[in-house]
Each structure stands twice: as C-alpha cells, then as structure tokens.
C-alpha cells in the first residue's frame, strides 16, 4: 500500500505541474541577453532557467551535452533519499565509518568525492542510479562512472559519458521540486544541504543581491565550470537553473554574469502585467 500511495503522489504531482514551455515573448529579451553573454565569452556556454510555477523556460545551447562533474551529486543524493523513503536505505546507516547523513553533507556542502563514491557504491554503482532515473523517465542525463574513475580517465570535455544538457538538468531539478522524485520531507532535507554549499562562491551566487536564497551544487573539471540549483526571486517565485561553461577562460565570471542576467530578467518580466498559460493575471509584486 505504501508503494502504491507513493506512486500516486508522484503521478498527481507530475500531471499537476505545467509542462516545459519555450520562452514567451516577454522573456525573449532575456534569452537574447544570455545569447550575447555566451557568444561574447570564449569557450562553449550552456544555460537553462525554468520558472517552477509556470514552466516557462529560457535556454542557450540548452540541448547540448555538457560534463556534469560534481553536479551529478544532486542525482546521487536524490536516489539515496528516494530509497530512504521506501525503507531500503537509512540516513543513520554506517557506510565507510560514517553515517549516510554525514556523507550526504560532505558530498553536497563540501563536494567531497570520496563521500560521493561511498554513496554511489552503496546504491549499487552508477548503472543503478542511471536505471533509477530511466525508470522515472528522467532523460538527457548519463551517469556512467563514479567520481574516482571519472577523474582518472583521460579528460575529454566533449565526451557524452557522465553528461547532461542544461534543459535536462533543470528538468531533474523541477521534478525534485514538484514531488515527482521526492516527498516534501526529503526535498526539504536536500535543499537545506544545497543551501549550505561552500564551493564555487564566485559563480551563481556571486553577483546576486545579498540575501538571495540559493540552493545549488557546483561542478569543476579541468576546462569545465558549472553550477546548478534553485534561485528564489524577491516575490517568492523560484527558478531552477543550470549553467555550464566549457573551455575558454574566466568561466566562473561568465556563470556569475549569466546568473545575474537570469535574476534581473525574471524580476523585470514578473513585474510586468502578463497572463500565463492557465489564465492567472500578475502585476507588480
């Protein structure tokens, strides 16, 4: 019965959430601005930003595959927490001399690779996590190796293994947020840890107004800088965002600039009277 109830919760959360929609006319200026940022920056930039209430999306190179690096740790955490919900795992379980909750904190707050690999091994390896995503129709992400194997391999920033497109990453974040993948208690637990992220302070958070709520996870490889997560706007609306910068120079600054553009663009857009697809009228917050 508990499995059936969980399945129904996921089903109703899925059908109650607006489908992803391409940028409406009011957000075309933001998409154009993000394109200019990407085109003026050396290297290859991928961006996606999704309004979690309306499903409205802006993206630049949104369907390109980028190495996930440590942003994959969001999926690892979600898989573990989902198994906790069904009684198959426990946050107090001892893994490698530490509790699972301690490993989760080290993985998400400090991006500890060893803690991540202990959790991946406990879950049955990368293929098991990939299977969990596929069974829930989460597409556009590939989890092929653990972190140790990924770092030991010859580096190719265009390798499609262990990759995600910006659109796929924000879809994963959306489904974590809307209850399709995690129940509210597990979601809150995950977001609390992501809000404490100590890495990449010169990326997504850097140019946002002081005090802006951000829950995020960074990723770094030689030649790659990334940051994915959630941004809350002054009126309480929340965005799922993904920023990937491959090759080129000054990648953290590019991500910071793009994140500020996304923030400003949505703040401006939401202050204009407009009608969203389901007919609600919004004016100045």
Automatic annotation (TrEMBL):
Keywords: Antibiotic resistance, Hydrolase, Signal. The lineage of its organism: Bacteria, Pseudomonadati, Pseudomonadota, Alphaproteobacteria, Sphingomonadales. Residues 46-244 form the Beta-lactamase class A catalytic domain. The keyword Amino-acid biosynthesis does not apply. The keyword Cytoplasm does not apply. Its EC number is 3.5.2.6. It catalyses: a beta-lactam + H2O = a substituted beta-amino acid. It comes from Sphingomonas alba. It is an enzyme of class 3 (hydrolase). GO terms for molecular function: hydrolase activity. Residues 1-21 form the signal peptide. This is Beta-lactamase. Belongs to the class-A beta-lactamase family. It comes from the Bacteria.
